[in-house]
Design brief:
By secondary structure, the protein is an alpha+beta fold. Helix content is about 30%, strand content about 10%.
Length: about 140
């Protein structure tokens, strides 16, 4: 099913992220109502760090998972990509038909902020402490 067919059948809005060389050249062909397009580059190369597994779409996803809206995520990814590239040039592009206003209101799965909720045991009563003899597994990885 093509993007236009999907939107016609569902009435849903769509954000299309394209992270490939020369992806900005596709934007004019893909612009439509209720569709935002984020391109990792214009009419140039798209770079990816294979060793660190970092690139524009990865930076964008990271920003979105931190609770940023799509516009903030785009800015975050653009800045991180620029830092990664140093002297190389890559110019990400964005089009939502509203100068970024729609994407400022759009969040991944709603407007929320994630946080680190790692739990830590501060004290443990002696009755709850286990010893190695309490554990049936005594392999090399048991502490």
């Amino acid at each position: 099913m093509s993007a236009p067919e999907f939107q016609n059948q569902t009435g849903n809005q769509m954000v299309l992220v394209i992270d490939t060389c020369y992806s900005g050249t596709l934007m004019q062909k893909l612009i439509a109502p209720n569709r935002a397009i984020i391109s990792s580059t214009g009419n140039g190369l798209a770079y990816y760090d294979r060793l660190q597994k970092q690139g524009f779409s990865r930076f964008l996803a990271s920003g979105l998972l931190k609770g940023m809206n799509f516009f903030e995520g785009f800015q975050y990814a653009s800045q991180k990509q620029k830092q990664m590239l140093g002297n190389l040039t890559q110019e990400p592009q964005l089009e939502d038909g509203q100068n970024g206003q729609w994407l400022r209101q759009l969040f991944l799965n709603g407007s929320f902020v994630t946080g680190d909720l790692t739990l830590a045991v501060e004290t443990m009563p002696p009755s709850l402490r286990a010893t190695t003899r309490d554990c049936p597994y005594r392999g090399p990885h048991f502490m």
